[in-house]
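Regression test case RT-17, inverse folding.

Input:
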C-alpha cells in the first residue's frame, strides 16, 4: 500500500456536501424539469396546472385559470378543494401548505387517499416551482377562510401561513415568478402553452381551462390582452377530430371505446379514440393520467400489438386477406391512422421526472386485452367502415412492398448507401471521421451552396445544395417521394435510412442544419424540408439533430463597424441603440453574401445563431404540419386567420 500523504483538499469526509430543503433543486434543476431553457421554463407552468387537473380527475375541480403577466410572473387559480392548511402530522410546528411547498416528495399522491390517479407521480412539482422561483405567493380557500403565504428567492418562507378573509370559495392560487438567475431567459411562449392547455382539455372532458396573456396590454394594438377558453364536451373523440380536421377521414365515425380493471387498491382504465385518414403518416398519441408520454411506453406497445393482431384477424374473417397472404405489418395498419390512447393508473411508473415514457409492465397486457375485445366488437358492428379501413391497410401493404423494391433498387445503384461511392454528386463532404463533430448544411440554391462551400470549415462542415423547392411530402407516399431527386439526395447524404427504416445511430453527421434565405420564400423552403424530415425521418428530428440557421436580413455599418440584423424588429433595435449615421443594406438572398460574410454571420460556431428543432409536443407538431401542408384548404385558412395577429415584421 502506498504511504504517500494525502494532499490537503483531497477527497475526505469534509468533501461530502449535504443539501437541505430545496437546495438540491437549485443546484441541479435539470434533474427535475429537464433543462433551464425554454422547455424547463414551461415545465414550471405544467407542474402547477397538472395539480389542478389532478383535482379535476378526482372529481372536485371544474376550472383552472392561467394568466401571464408583464413582469414574467404566472398566475394559476383552480376551484378544487384547496391544499390542507392545518399542521402536518410529521411537522406539527408547520402548516401542511408550507410542507408541500418546501419539502421534496411531499404531497397527496403517495397513497394517502387524496388521489386515486394523478399525473404528479413524484410529489415534487409544486416544491420545485417554489425552489426555482424568484418569488411565489400561495392563496388557499378552504374551510370558510382564505389563507396566504409568501416565499422569497429559492422558496424561502417569508413568514408562516396566515389566515385571511372569510370566503365560501374553495381552491388554490399560485402566483410565481421564475428566477432569472436559474433560467436562460424568462419569456413564456403563448402558442406552446395554449396548445398544451388545449390538449389537456381534450383529455379531461368538461374541464374548463382559461388562458389569458396580459403582457404588453399597454400596447394600443393589444386590445386589453389575449384570452382563450378550452373545453371539450366529448373528450378524446373531439381530440381526434381536431387532429384530423385538415385531413380527409376514411370513415365518418370516430372509433371510441374504453375499459377498466381494479385489483385491490390498483386501478387501471383505458380510453381509445381512433380514425383513419387519407394521409400517409401515422399519428398515435399516448397519455397517462393526462401526461403526454411522447416517448410511448408499455401502454402504447400494448395498443400497437393489439391493433395489428385484431386487424389481421378481421381481414381474414372478412376475406380481405387469404390464409396464404402476407399479414399486415404494424406499419400497414397504422398508415393514415390518428389515435389517442389515454390510460389512467393508480401507481404509474415513469422514466424520469418529465414523465415521457411509461414503464408499468402490467399495463401492456391490460391494454392489449381491452383493445383486442373492444376494437373487434366495433369493427364487426360497423362493417362498411371496416371495409374502408381494411382496404387502406391492404393498399398500404402494397405500397410498402413497392417502396421496399424502390429502396432496394436505389441501394443497388448506390443512392441510399452510406458508403462514399453512393453519396450524391452535389454533396461537398467534410474530412472529420468523428460524426459527433460534423455538420451537414442543406442549402437553398446552387449559388448559395457555392458561397457556403467557400465559407465552410472543411474539416467539420459538409454542404448539400438543393435546387428549387422540395416536394411537399405531406401529400404523397414514400414510394413517390423517393422518385424525387432532392429527396433521394438528402436521404443518401444523411445515410440513416428513410421511412420506417431510419436508424439515427447511422446518421453521418452530428447536426443537420437547414440554411435558406431570410425571407418568405426561404421560410417556405424550410417548411418543406422540415415536413420531409418530420414525416419520413422522424427520429432524426425527435432526437434533436435538426437545426435551422438564422442568416441576417440586414447589414448595418456604423463607420468601420459592421453589424447584422436577422429581422426588421432587430434592425430597429440596433438603430435605436447605436449613435452615429448608419448605412443599411439588405441582403436579397444568401447568394449575395461573400464567403467571409456568410462564415461570420451564419456558419461560424462562435458567432452564428442556430434554432434547434424539437417535437416535444408531438400532437401539436402533427396538427400544425397537417394544417399548413395538407390538401384541405379550410383548416389552413382558419389557422392563418386566428394566428395572423402573432405574425410581425414579416418580409413581404
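Golden output:
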Amino acid at each position: 500500500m502506498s504511504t504517500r500523504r494525502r494532499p490537503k483538499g483531497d477527497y475526505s469526509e469534509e468533501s461530502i456536501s449535504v443539501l437541505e430543503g430545496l437546495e438540491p433543486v437549485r443546484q441541479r434543476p435539470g434533474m427535475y424539469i429537464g433543462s433551464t431553457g425554454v422547455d424547463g421554463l414551461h415545465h414550471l407552468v405544467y407542474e402547477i396546472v397538472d395539480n389542478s387537473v389532478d383535482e379535476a380527475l378526482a372529481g372536485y375541480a371544474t376550472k383552472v385559470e392561467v394568466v401571464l403577466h408583464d413582469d414574467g410572473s404566472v398566475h394559476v387559480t383552480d376551484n378544487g378543494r384547496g391544499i390542507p392548511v392545518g399542521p402536518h402530522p410529521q411537522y406539527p410546528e408547520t402548516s401542511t401548505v408550507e410542507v408541500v411547498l418546501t419539502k421534496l416528495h411531499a404531497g397527496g399522491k403517495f397513497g394517502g387517499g387524496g388521489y386515486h390517479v394523478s399525473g404528479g407521480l413524484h410529489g415534487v412539482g409544486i416544491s420545485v416551482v417554489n425552489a426555482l422561483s424568484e418569488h411565489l405567493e400561495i392563496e388557499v380557500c378552504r374551510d370558510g377562510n382564505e389563507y396566504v403565504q409568501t416565499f422569497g428567492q429559492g422558496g424561502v418562507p417569508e413568514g408562516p401561513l396566515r389566515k385571511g378573509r372569510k370566503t365560501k370559495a374553495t381552491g388554490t392560487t399560485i402566483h410565481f415568478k421564475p428566477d432569472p438567475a436559474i433560467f436562460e431567459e424568462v419569456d413564456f411562449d403563448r402558442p406552446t402553452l395554449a396548445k398544451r392547455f388545449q390538449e389537456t382539455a381534450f383529455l379531461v372532458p368538461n374541464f374548463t381551462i382559461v388562458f389569458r396573456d396580459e403582457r404588453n396590454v399597454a400596447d394600443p394594438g393589444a386590445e386589453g390582452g389575449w384570452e382563450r377558453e378550452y373545453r371539450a364536451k366529448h373528450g378524446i373523440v373531439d381530440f381526434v377530430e381536431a387532429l384530423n380536421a385538415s385531413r380527409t377521414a376514411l370513415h365518418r365515425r370516430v372509433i371510441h371505446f374504453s375499459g377498466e380493471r381494479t385489483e385491490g387498491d390498483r386501478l387501471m382504465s383505458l380510453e381509445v379514440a381512433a380514425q383513419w385518414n387519407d394521409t400517409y403518416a401515422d399519428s398515435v398519441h399516448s397519455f397517462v393520467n393526462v401526461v403526454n408520454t411522447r416517448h410511448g411506453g408499455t401502454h402504447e406497445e400494448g395498443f400497437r400489438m393489439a391493433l395489428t393482431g385484431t386487424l389481421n384477424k378481421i381481414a381474414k374473417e372478412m376475406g380481405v386477406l387469404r390464409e396464404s397472404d402476407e399479414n399486415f405489418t404494424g406499419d400497414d395498419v397504422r398508415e393514415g391512422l390518428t389515435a389517442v390512447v389515454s390510460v389512467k393508473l393508480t401507481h404509474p411508473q415513469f422514466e424520469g421526472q418529465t414523465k415521457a415514457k411509461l414503464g408499468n409492465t402490467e399495463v401492456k397486457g391490460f391494454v392489449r386485452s381491452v383493445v383486442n375485445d373492444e376494437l373487434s366488437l366495433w369493427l364487426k358492428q360497423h362493417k362498411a367502415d371496416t371495409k374502408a379501413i381494411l382496404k387502406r391497410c391492404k393498399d398500404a401493404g402494397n405500397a410498402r412492398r413497392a417502396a421496399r423494391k424502390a429502396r432496394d433498387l436505389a441501394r443497388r445503384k448506390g443512392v441510399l448507401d452510406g458508403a462514399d461511392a453512393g453519396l450524391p454528386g452535389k454533396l461537398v463532404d467534410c474530412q472529420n471521421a468523428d460524426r459527433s463533430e460534423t455538420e451537414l448544411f442543406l442549402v437553398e440554391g446552387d449559388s448559395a451552396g457555392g458561397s457556403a462551400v467557400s465559407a465552410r470549415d472543411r474539416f467539420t462542415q459538409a454542404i448539400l445544395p438543393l435546387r428549387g423547392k422540395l416536394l411537399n411530402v405531406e401529400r404523397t407516399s414514400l414510394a413517390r417521394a423517393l422518385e424525387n431527386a432532392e429527396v433521394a439526395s438528402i436521404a443518401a447524404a444523411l445515410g440513416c435510412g428513410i421511412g420506417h427504416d431510419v436508424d439515427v445511430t447511422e446518421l453521418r453527421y452530428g447536426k443537420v442544419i437547414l440554411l435558406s434565405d431570410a425571407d418568405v420564400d426561404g421560410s417556405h423552403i424550410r417548411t418543406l424540408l422540415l415536413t420531409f424530415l418530420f414525416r419520413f425521418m422522424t427520429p432524426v428530428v425527435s432526437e434533436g439533430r435538426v437545426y435551422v440557421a438564422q442568416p441576417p436580413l440586414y447589414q448595418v455599418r456604423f463607420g468601420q463597424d459592421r453589424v447584422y440584423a436577422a429581422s426588421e424588429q432587430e434592425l430597429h433595435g440596433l438603430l435605436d441603440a447605436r449613435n452615429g449615421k448608419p448605412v443599411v443594406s439588405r441582403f436579397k438572398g444568401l447568394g449575395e453574401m461573400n464567403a467571409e460574410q456568410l462564415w461570420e454571420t451564419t456558419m461560424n460556431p462562435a458567432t452564428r445563431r442556430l434554432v434547434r428543432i424539437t417535437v416535444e409536443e408531438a400532437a401539436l407538431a402533427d396538427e400544425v404540419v397537417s394544417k399548413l401542408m395538407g390538401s384541405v384548404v379550410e383548416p389552413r385558412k382558419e389557422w392563418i386567420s386566428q394566428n395572423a395577429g402573432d405574425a410581425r415584421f414579416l418580409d413581404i
